[in-house]
Amino acid sequence: MNSARRRIERPVRERESPYKIIAVGFYEEQINTLDDAAVALQRAGYIKANRSGVLQMIVRRLQYDIRGMRPHEVLDFFFANYLRRPLAIAPAREIAEAAPRKGASSTKQHRRQGKGARTR
Questions:
Q1: Angle at 61 between CA 23 and CA 91, to 5 degrees
Q2: Would the pLDDT of 60 be above 50?
Q3: 26: Cβ–Cβ under 8 A, 6 or more apart, which residues?
Q4: What does the alpha-carbon distance between residue 81 and residue 78 come to, in Å, rounded to a whole number?
């Protein structure tokens, strides 16, 4: 008798799903907040609550909040609601890429020389 097992080859099913798994970095305080929200939902009776579910709820709320906004309106919304410190005003990428930068012959040369494309 042959002691080796034969594996049955099954066709691989390709599933098209809108669901994706991503890696996102969070500070410990933010993770604690997600955990606290999940625990509160569980204690309130939603026993399936977890970090992923809390984040999905937050994203749905963000989708609702910014629906129909133009890019500059989204930026204003984030300034007004989420950003803790003001950012420097920068030209739009299309404008910045079209205009040559003062004192720099090209971004590629800066990268080759080990310098970043952005100056501080």
A1: 70
A2: yes
A3: 34
A4: 5
For the record, the structure tokens of 61 come out as 């709320």
Residue type at position 91: P
pTM of the model: 0.55
Which candidate, 74, 71, 39, 75, places its Cα nearest to that of 54?
39
Which two tokens mark 81? Answer: 């609601």
- DSSP characters over 73-95: HHHHHHHHHT-SSPPPP---HHH
> Residue 120 pLDDT > 50, yes or no?
no
| Cα 84–chain centre separation | 18
Tell me how far apart the alpha carbons of residues 55 and 62 are, in angstroms, rounded to a whole number: 10
Q: Which helix H or strand E contains 54, and what residues bound it?
A: helix 51-66
Q: Are 110 and 117 in contact (CB under 8 A)?
A: yes
> Any residues with CB less than 8 A from the CB of 34 and at least 6 apart, and which?
26, 51, 54, 55
